[in-house]
Amino acid sequence: MIEQLLPPGVTSSEAFDDAAPAPLFPAEAALMAGRRARRRRQFATARACARRCLSQLGRRPVALLPGPGGAPAWPDGVVGSITHCDGYRAAVAAHARDTAALGIDAEPAGPLPPGVLSLIASDTERAHLAELSAADPATPWERLFFSAKEATYKAWYPATSTWLGFRDATLALRPDGTFTATLHPPQPPPVDPVYEGRWLASESLVITAVARGWGAVPPV
Ligand SMILES: CC(C)(COP(=O)(O)OP(=O)(O)OC[C@H]1O[C@@H](n2cnc3c(N)ncnc32)[C@H](O)[C@@H]1OP(=O)(O)O)[C@@H](O)C(=O)NCCC(=O)NCCS
């Protein structure tokens, strides 16, 4: 599914369960020691996805340990992103010379828990979501909104090592499968504050992706 959202040059790999063998490097296994079985399985399958991405880039498999802020430390010259949720694990990666930043996020489709939207969306954003929902009630716009902000954060953080709150970005989803996040953190951002992204929604999942350098990929 996720490859539909990615520009040329970005590799991807996804899994819908943890059935395939997903061996860990010793340092990764040590990190997961004592963690719950579900977390260990998701971590391992997502790492296997990430190493398939590296292989597609012609890079050798390496341990992918969390760096500062929890962002995975990709090898030099590579940017990438990882997501996992019930029923889905995925990784994307690209040569840093081609793509400055990548962020992906997957969430189960369906409404957000009560009270969440008011924490993550401004009044303007909520009005926009209400318009989208009125025009197309079958699409889980609020869940997509949440996911798109998380994907934006995953693209932002590795480039800046800076926290970004949900209210530090204004997000506009569009029915054509694209979105734009305009960041306005308290300090002037050290990178271009406009992030373009793409989304898709199936019956069970929403998936969002942000990349610098979309080129001329047609809307989903
Ligand atoms: C970090 C965060 C985005 C992860 O999202 P999530 O839906 O909880 O979990 P996902 O499974 O989709 O993603 C987890 C993966 O994200 C990656 N990740 C974690 N922290 C990250 C960071 N700071 N930067 C980039 N990637 C990060 C990791 O690869 C992690 O998986 P791993 O621990 O197995 O390596 C979320 O927990 C969070 O802190 N959000 C608040 C910040 C935010 O989203 N602000 C919105 C600004 S507009």
* CATH architecture classification name of the largest domain: Alpha-Beta Complex
Task: Write down how many β-strands occur, each being a DSSP E stretch of 2 or more residues.
Answer: 8
Biggest sheet: strands side by side, in what order?
Answer: 4-8-7-6-5
Largest sheet: 5 strands, antiparallel
Structural features, described:
30% of the residues lie in helices and 25% in strands. It is of the alpha+beta class. It has 2 domains: 2-104, Ribosomal Protein L22, Chain A; 108-211, Alpha-Beta Complex (Ribosomal Protein L22, Chain A). The strands form 2 sheets. It has a 5-stranded antiparallel β-sheet. The radius of gyration is 17 Å and the shape is globular. Residues 214-220 have low confidence and may be disordered. Bound molecules: coenzyme A. Coenzyme A is lined by residues 43, 46, 66, 69-72, 82-85, 105, 149-150, 152-154, 157-158, 164-166, 168-169. Residues 28-94 form the 4'-phosphopantetheinyl transferase N-terminal domain.
SSE arrangement:
Blueprint: E1 11-15, H1 26-32, H2 37-56, E2 78-85, E3 88-95, E4 102-108, H3 116-120, H4 123-135, H5 141-160, E5 169-173, E6 178-183, E7 194-201, E8 205-211
Antiparallel strand pairs: 1-3, 2-3, 4-8, 5-6, 6-7, 7-8
The structure holds coenzyme A.
The site of coenzyme A has 24 residues, from α2, β2 and α5.
Domain 4'-phosphopantetheinyl transferase N-terminal: 28-94
Domain 4'-phosphopantetheinyl transferase: 102-189
Protein name: 4'-phosphopantetheinyl transferase superfamily protein
